[in-house]
Design a protein that fits this description.
9 helices; about 210 residues; HTH_TetR; DNA-binding; Homeodomain-like_sf; Arc Repressor Mutant, subunit A; DNA binding; TetR family transcriptional regulator
Length: about 210
């Protein structure tokens, strides 16, 4: 909720400060996420910050929570979403890699970069990695894969995507979309049906 004061004017809002912190993290890394630079960026007083956050650490903790809820939370939701086949389930997960509203790859890269200098954030990343891997493996078990093979398939899918993010790989959407059926077949051992691909393409506004 926005707050105002007759003495100091508009103080902003928690979301405003958090969004500024998020943008600074993505552009310049965690060292740029400091109260005074954010206040200058927002054209607000430094003291305004303390109406919404106890200190910088609380702001950083809130950023981590935002990353956890968006990227890990949404990946779990997509892997657990209804699907008639493992190929369709895989396409549900692929939504994460193509829709930044579901999974924010730039945020992922920024947090992983932050983890290189913070043992606490590294622990958060490792916990998220394990949760995501467990979720993907569970998805395969749901469709009859034994646990050992499900684990290997989950790792193959996940480590490839983290490689995409870590290398900051950029592909034109038409190029990536044309590769989707082969990715699904390689990752799952099952060729996606045309109707499954059509639904997937439609979700992302793509026409063959």
């Amino acid at each position: 909720m926005e707050q105002t004061s007759n003495e100091s004017g508009w103080r902003g809002s928690p979301d405003l400060w958090l969004e500024a912190a998020y943008e600074s993290l993505l552009v310049s890394g965690v060292d740029a996420v400091k109260i005074m630079p954010l206040a200058k960026k927002l054209n607000l007083s430094r003291t305004s910050f303390y109406w919404f956050f106890r200190d910088r650490e609380e702001l950083l903790d809130t950023l981590v929570s935002r990353w956890r809820e968006k990227n890990t939370g949404n990946l779990i939701k997509r892997a657990d979403a209804y699907a008639e086949t493992i190929a369709e389930a895989m396409l549900n997960v692929f939504d994460c890699w193509l829709d930044t509203e579901i999974f924010d790859a730039k945020f992922e890269f920024a947090v992983r970069s932050w983890a290189l200098q913070s043992p606490e954030i590294l622990a958060e990343v490792r916990q998220a990695d394990q949760q995501r891997l467990d979720t993907l493996a569970r998805m395969f078990v749901r469709f009859g894969e034994d646990e050992s093979r499900a684990d290997v398939r989950a790792r193959t899918i996940y480590l490839v995507q983290i490689g995409y993010i870590s290398m900051q790989t950029s592909e034109d959407i038409p190029v990536r979309m044309k590769r989707i059926p082969e990715y699904v077949e390689i990752f799952t051992g099952q060729t996606p049906e045309k109707r499954e691909l059509d639904r997937f393409y439609s979700r992302h506004g793509y026409a063959e």
